[in-house]
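Run log, item B.
One chain of 543 residues. Sequence copied directly from the ordering sheet:
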Amino acid sequence: MCVSVEAHQLGSRWAVTATDGSGLVQGDPTIITWGFVPDGTPLASGGTSDLIASLDSFFEEPDTGPDLTQRGWWQHFDASFDRWSQVAGLTYNYEPNDDGTIAGLVNFGTQLTPGFLGVRADVRIGGKFIDGMSNVLAFNNFPEGSGEMVFDTADGALFSDPTDDFVLFRNVIAHEHGHGLGIRHVESVDGAFLMEPFIDTSFDGPQFDDILAAHRGYGDFYEKKNNGAGQAEGNEIFQHSIPLGRVPNEGMVEIGTNARPDASGLPMRVEPEDVDFISIDGIGDVDFFSFEVPADAVVDVAINPLGPTYLESEQTGIPATQTPYDTSSFNNLSVQLFDVDGTTQLASNNGSGIGESELLNGVEVGPGTYYIRVEGELDDVQFYDVIVQAEYEEIVANGDFNSDGAYDCTDVDALVAEIASGSGDVSFDITGDGIVDSDDLDQWLTEGGAANGFGGAFIVGDANLDGVVDLSDFNIWNGARLSNTAAWCSGDFNADGSVDVSDFNLWNGNRFRSSGALQSVPEPSGFGFALFGMVVIGWLRRK
C-alpha cells in the first residue's frame, strides 16, 4: 500500500523538467531525469535518507563504490523507468549527480529543489523508516511539487524478493513513479491495474488503464523525439510519419496494440512485450503513418478504436459504486489518406460514430509511398490501431530487380533476403502467383542462367554465379558458415536466412556440375576428393 489516495484522473503533469525546460502542457512528450539522493540528505517529508545503504544491505551488494549503476539493485529502477518509456511519450535519463540539498516539496506544492542537469535529477529517490514491515511500502509526490520518491527502508525483505525477477520491487517503483507522473489511484473490481492502491504481483508493469492515463498526459511512444521508428521528431507531420512498410499482395500491415485476455479471464492484461500502444491524446493531436505499394493497387485503410470496458471508481476510503468505463468510446476519430506528395487528399472519412471504425475502401493508387492522417474530434484520449490492406493488379516481376541490365548477386541476394523475411513484397514475385517463395528463386536461376549466356539455369550451389559448382563456391559457403546470412552469394542456397549444413548438402549434391552448355567439368582425382570430403566431414563432426 502507498499514500496519496486519490481517484484515477491525471491530476497534473510535468510542466518543467531539467531537460525540456518550461512550457510543457497536456499531451507533450517529456524527458525526465531520475537519480538518488546521497544518504544523509534531508527529506521534505521529514528525516534523512538511508536508502543506498539499505538497498546495499537488502541485496547483499558487494560493490559499494560511488558508481551506483554497478549496484545489482540499480537495474530494477532502470527497468521500471524504461518500461514507462516503452509505452508512452516519456524519455528517461539517469542523473548520477545530486548535491544533497533537501529533497521534495514544501509549503503544499512549492518545489524546493527542482531538477538541474549535472546537479540533481527531476525525480529524486530516497528512503527512510516509515511504518515498519508491509503496510506503506513507499510514497511519491505529484509533479507539481516534485517527483520525490521515498521508500520504507524497513521493507527490505519484500524489495529483495527475487520472485519473477523482483516483480514486487519493480512494480512498487513503477507504481510510485505513476504518481510522479500525476496519475492518481484507481479501483476496479474486474480489472487489475498498477495504479490501484495495493501492489499486485500477478502482472508486470503498467497495465491498460495506467498506460491510458500516461497517454493522456504525455502522448504515445511515437510522439516523442527519437522514437525508434526512424524519426527524429514526433509523427505530427507527414514528413515524420511512422513507416508501416510495404503492403504485401492480399495481405496487410498494421500498428496498434490492445489489452488482451489472460489465463484468469481478465479482459485487459498487458504483457511486458506489448509496446505498440498508439493513441490520440486529445484535441490538437495528429498522427501520421506511411505505407508503400510497389505497383498499381486497390487499397483499404481501417482505423479501429481499441479498449476494453471495465468497472472503475475513485478511491474514497469507503466502498464506492463502480461504473462501466468503455475505453473504446472516448474520442471520435477521423482518417484521411494522402497521395505521395503528402498533401493531396485521396480519401477521408469521419462519418462513423464514437467508438466505431473509420474505413477507406477501394482507393486506387499507383506505386509509391502514401500517408495516413488520424485525429480526434473530442478532447479525450483514444487508443486505436491502423490496418492497411492492398490487392495488386497482376504483376510479373523482372528478375533484374535493380534494372541495371544484369542478373547478378545484387538481384539474387535481394530475392533470397525477401524469401527469408516472408514479408511478401510482390515486386519480387517473378512467377506472378502473388507469393514470393522458392518458386521465384527457381525462376530467377533459370532467367539468370539464360541472361548470362550459360544456355541453362544456374545450378543450386553456384554461389559466385560463374556457371560451375566447384571448390570456389565451397570456399564462399565455408567463409559464411553458421552465420545468419540471407544471401545466395554468401551460401544461403535454400533461402532460409542462414548459412549452414543444409546449404552445404545442396552444394555437395551438385558439386562439379555446370549450367547449360558447360557440361564437362573434370572432377579432382579420387584421392584428392576423398581427402577433401574427409576434411569437411571432420569439421562437421567437430561442430
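Observations after the first pass:
- Residues 1-8, 106-110, 525-543 have pLDDT under 50 and may be disordered.
- Residues 221-260+275-392 form a domain with the Jelly Rolls fold (CATH 2.60.120.380).
Flagged for discussion on Thursday.
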